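Today's session is about reading a structure prediction critically. Students often jump straight to the picture, but the first step is always the sequence itself: look for stretches that repeat, for charged clusters, for runs of hydrophobic residues. Only then move on to the predicted structure, which in these notes is written as discrete structure tokens rather than atom positions. Here is the chain we will use throughout the hour.
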Amino acid sequence: MARITAGATMSHVPVVGRAIDTDQTGTDYWKPAFAGFEFSKQWIKDNLPDVIFLVYNDHATAFDMKIIPTFGIGCGEEFPPADEGYGPRPVPTVKGAPDLAWHIAQSVIEDEFDLTIINEMKVDHGLTVPLSLMFGKPTEWPCRVIPFPVNVVLYPPPSGKRCYALGKAIRKAVEKFDEDLNVHIWGTGGMSHQLQGPRAGLINREWDKSFLDRLTSDPDALARIPHIEYVREAGSEGIEMVMWLIMRGALGDKVEEVHRHYHVPASNTALGHIILETR
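Below is the predicted structure for this chain, in token form.
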């Protein structure tokens, strides 16, 4: 059967992608941010999955105010990079895993989670920056990817509790798939940041680091955090971290933290990263 063997989280700051694309990762400003991914690049080479189930949020590229699914799943064969206003990123087209994606969709929907099935979609920096952080600048991505966009842009977003339970349903679905596949699940977005208003530029290091601690050791407590705490402590865009709970729910109870990185600032955002392996 297929199995989920590891999970990772990372922030998907758009200017991080720009630094990669323009070979600025070794500059004085960016070097400390990217240094925390040197371990991760070697780890992913040594633990290359067949499929990455990648949880992210679209930034008004594939979706707009006409339609915004709370949870979507990409079931297509491929997903090209989106033009976010300055041309598509110079990254490979994402190759999907439609058989597994359709299986997960059926299983999760039967478990009473309503997903929007997406067969054609362009993917923005929310998905491609995490891939670049882990894989660098390949001519092709080395494994298949199932895009899983979550609405954390337009109120109301899903609760952490709902996301955590959804992760458990995704794990159940993967383990029922009758092909021998090594699957990783990634949660992206965050950490603390606010992009507008009087608190623009807010970063809360203490809250971020506590979140990382509890992500490993006490995800049940994290799942109970209400929306208002994310907004108050992590800023209006800090709500993106509910997507990390989908990843954590899919890993099961026993995990080992094998790597952590936290850096401020990355643009006007706290950049967080963690790798967990199932045990």
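Discussion point for the tutorial: Residues 69 and 109 are 14 Å apart (CA to CA).
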